[in-house]
Amino acid sequence: MLPEIGTDGQMKLIKAKVLIIGVGGLGSAAALYLTGAGIGTLGLVDKDVVSLSNLQRQVLYTENAIGEPKVSAASRRLEAMSSATHIVTYNTYLDPKNAKSIISGYDIVIDCCDNYSTRYLINDTCLSLGTPWIYGSIGAFNGQVALFNFKSGAQYTDLYPDRKTLCSLPRTSGGVIGTMPGVIGTLQASEAIKLIAGFGKSLDGRLFTINLKTLETQIIDL
User: Fold this and answer.
1) Please, are residues 189 and 30 in contact by the beta-carbon 8 Å criterion?
2) Residue 34 maps to which CATH number?
3) How confident is the model at residue 11 (pLDDT cuts 50, 70, 90)?
4) Distance CA 124, CA 15 (A)
5) What is the C-alpha to C-alpha distance for residues 145 and 209, in angstroms, rounded to an integer?
6) Cβ atoms 131, 122 nearer than 8 A
7) Lateral strand order in the sheet of 108-111
8) What's the number of domains the chain is made of?
9) Is the distance from CB of 117 to CB of 167 less than 8 angstroms?
10) Cα(117)–Cα(107) distance, rounded to whole angstroms?
């Protein structure tokens, strides 16, 4: 019904292949809305299992899924939502050995991971393959979204150039309000839909930020 999408745009969505790396809070929201939008093939990459502490923000899962691989529980939920979307699961972490073989089968990558090393790997691999990818990051009440490796040529390294320092930092597990990954994951899905159907102004070369405590937003040119 939306003239910006129409039948042609919906057919583009049906033919599209989107890879989500990390099926936690961000990935839960992105996967649900992309499946609802009619994406033809949705890949899910994650090695983690569902835990009770996830349920506050990872809306793909229920208490019955605790202890189950996230990709298995996510696939079951998404297939129940729409049999038209082909769900492909990778019960593994993305690493330098498998990144190119996994990412090469997809048109767009959505970064829903939680560490710098994987994001730099996504950036390097997508750059070598010519694949655009949608970055998302959250913490406490703050979130960020950007589109990399598209027409502007902007890369993750433009936003965070100090790879060695960031990758050497110890992983931390700070809290986040449960709605934050929903906001950012949904925006990532929206950016993917816009990119595939070919309408609107994307976040190519731009960084969107939001603070949920104040509802202040910014869009910064990279």
Assistant:
1) yes
2) 3.40.50.720
3) very high
4) 25
5) 7
6) no
7) 86-90, 41-45, 17-21, 108-111, 133-139, 142-148, 206-211, 216-221
8) 1
9) yes
10) 22
Per-residue tokens: 133: 């990818």
Could you list the residue range(s) of the whole structural domain that residue 101 is in? 6-221
Domain membership flag for residue 188: yes
Q: Among 166, 177, 173, 171, which residue's Cα sits nearest to residue 210?
A: 177
Residue 108: other Cβ atoms inside 10 A: 22
Share of the chain above pLDDT 90, in %: 91
Euclidean distance between CA atoms 187 and 30, whole angstroms: 8
DSSP β-bridge partners for residue 209: 144, 218
Residues 30-89: tens digit of each pLDDT: 999 999 999 999 999 999 999 999 999 999 999 999 999 999 999 999 999 999 999 999
Output the six-digit token pair for 114: 């939680």
Instruction: Quote the radius of gyration of the chain (alpha carbons, Å).
Output: 16
Residue identified by tokens 């996230």 is 70
Give CA separation, 64 vs 52, 54, 61, 109, 192, in Å. 10, 13, 8, 29, 31
The whole-model pTM stands at 0.96
Domain assignment present for 1: no
Q: Is 169 helix (H, G, I), strand (E, B) or coil?
A: coil
Contact 195, 146 (CB under 8 A): no
